[in-house]
Amino acid sequence: MPAILTLAKLTVWEASRRKLLIALVALTVIIIAGTTFLMSRLWTIPADHGRPPSEVEVRLIASQLLVVITFMFAAVLALSSVMVAAPSISADVESGLVLSMLSRPVRRADLVIGKWLGLGVLVIIYAGGAGTLELIGVDLTTGYVPPHPISLLAYVAGMGIILLTLALFVSTRLSGMTGGIIGLAAYFIAWVGGILGGVGVALNNDSLRHSGTVISLLVPTDQLWRGAVYSMEPASILATARTAGRALAGNPFLVTDPPAYAFLAWTVVWVLGLLALTIWSFRVREV
């Protein structure tokens, strides 16, 4: 355990020195400032007959804008998680650094778990910090607070954990560039698969519905995204959407129900299982 914690701290320290992380933080601050200003301008949008919008109208618009903003943050987090994790093992192997690390009393499993923990901490800090600042900005300018803010942040962080775990696994066998491409492709395939599954529900098409389910099980990021959307929707929007029945099931920005507990349990099993597979893959690799 001491070796794992030491490697986790080293991973956090190394990642914090990268220009990618510095650029990510700067970009995030700019985005939060820009979106906060955008939210503050909602009060100036003329409503019927030129009257100013009511508090209810502003909060309703803010709730839908927040979904789009969160999607942007989720995409940035996905990109960052993959690009940081993809070269984390392969780069050390190619440079020979891993040999000096493993020559000490450090097991390969310790190295993998340490890197995973360190990167996971960074993902959680980013998702929690950026998400909290964005929610504070929305609250201060419009008075809107999502019904389930903690769940929202947890779902977004979970997406990052899934993708970094996948990228770390690929990193045990392939180069960082290849791993990054695979990770991002998996993210977008999962998102499209979720839309296909929803369209299958709307059209009562079993083939599309089952295809979406299979893709969601293979890469569970889309279902967590839908959980994040559900956490942001006010009760009035949910009530209206539910009256439409399954017709809106294909809309990835409007979700009427959270992910099932069974699926959340599967997501935990998926992450731990892939982490175990990553340990095995690195253990049998010649370095």
Key words describing this protein structure:
mainly alpha, ABC transporter permease subunit
Give a brief description.
By secondary structure, the protein is mainly alpha-helical. 78% of the residues lie in helices and 0% in strands. It has one domain (2-15, 66-136, 148-283).
Characterization of this structure:
- This protein has one domain.
- The chain has 12 helices and no strands.
- It is mainly α.
- Helices cover 78% and strands 0% of the residues.
- The model has no long low-confidence stretch (mean pLDDT 89).
- Helix and strand pattern: HHHHHHHHHHHH
Tally of domains: 1
**Cα-atom radius of gyration:** 21 Å
Shape: globular
Question: Could you give a short account of the major beta sheet?
Answer: none
Structural class: mainly alpha
Total helices: the number is 12
Please tell me the overall pLDDT: 89
> Using DSSP, what is the number of strands?
0
The parts where pLDDT drops under 50 for at least 5 residues are none
Distance N terminus to C terminus?
23 Å
The helix content, as a percent range, equals: over 70%
Strand content: under 5%
Keywords: Membrane, Transmembrane, Transmembrane helix
GO molecular function: ABC-type transporter activity
Pfam family, one: ABC2_membrane_2
Protein name: ABC transporter permease subunit
Secondary-structure blueprint:
Elements: H1 2-16, H2 19-40, H3 55-85, H4 90-95, H5 97-102, H6 108-142, H7 149-171, H8 176-203, H9 206-218, H10 221-232, H11 235-243, H12 261-283
Helix pairs in contact: 1-6, 2-3, 2-6, 3-6, 3-7, 3-8, 3-10, 6-7, 6-12, 7-8, 7-10, 7-12, 8-9
